[in-house]
Structures are given as structure tokens and as C-alpha cells.
Amino acid sequence: MPRSVNHVASRAKRKSILKLTRGYFGARKNVWTVAKNTWEKGLTYAYRDRRNKKRNFRALWIQRINAAARLEGMSYSQLMGALHKAGIEINRKVLADLALNNPEAFKAIVAKVK
Fold first, then answer.
1. What is the Cα–Cα distance from 30 to 8, expressed in whole angstroms?
2. Distances from the Cα of 113 to the Cαs of 8, 14, 41, 92, in angstroms?
3. Within 13 Å of residue 108, how many CA atoms lie on the same side as its CB?
4. Element (H, E) at 20
5. Angle of helix 76-86 relative to helix 103-113, nearest 10 degrees?
6. 107 Cβ partners below 8 Å, 6+ apart?
7. Cα–Cα distance for residue pair 35/44, rounded to 1 Å
8. DSSP per-residue codes, 36-61
9. Domain residues of the chain, as ranges?
10. Is the torsion defined by CA of 84, 88, 90, 95 positive or negative?
11. Is 52 exposed, middle or buried (0-12, 13-18, 19+ CB in 10 A)?
């Protein structure tokens, strides 16, 4: 009895992965083994960087808060300590947004904790 191979399914799988690698450079987009390896590694980078994105944004917010706080004569750590002591619970994301888009509100917060 001849060997039975499901070419329809295997071709469909290859086609779908090659479709996902469109736009890659050189053999990474059209050579099956290279494309598959690149695509699989891309998934690991995506998983890792979904976590790193959170770190990067927190670091950005801290830099923005620090810059705005220094204009008011405080450092970031002094400001965060004073906020905690005053019982003002405002997260870094909102604080950074205020520092950037609404400096008057940020000044009011700093004045309240000074």
C-alpha cells in the first residue's frame, strides 16, 4: 500500500506561516525552514517584549515626573515620599500625564505636599 501524506494540510500550514513572514528580509520571508525559525523566534520576542513594555513605560513616567518635579525644586524621590506621607494616592501614569499636559495641576499637587 502506498504511503499516504496529507499534502493539503501541510501546504496550508506552510502557506499560512509564509504569509506571516511577509516583509522580512531575504530568505527569512520565502525559504520555509528559515521563515519558520524566524517566525518562532519572533513569537518569543513578542512574549518577552510585552513584559518589557510595562517596564519601559514606568521608566518613562518616572523620568517625566522627575523633570517636572525638579522645575518645582524637588527631586522625584522627595516628591513620591511627600505624596505617600500626605496620603495622596495618584499613580505614576496619571502624574506623568499631568506633568506633561497640565502643568498647573501638577504644580498644585506639588504645592499641596510641600
1. 19
2. 68, 61, 48, 16
3. 5
4. helix 7-20
5. 70
6. 72
7. 15
8. HHHHHHHHHHHHHHHHHHHHHHHHHH
9. 8-113
10. negative
11. exposed
pTM: 0.80
pLDDT over 90, % of the chain: 96
Integer CA distances (angstroms), 7 to 12, 15, 54, 63, in order: 8, 12, 43, 55
Nearest-angstrom CA–CA distance, 60 and 77: 15
DSSP E strand stretches across the chain: none
Q: What is the pLDDT of residues 1-53, one digit of tens each?
A: 889 899 999 999 999 999 999 999 999 999 999 999 999 999 999 999 999 99
Q: For 8-113, CATH number?
A: 1.10.1900.20
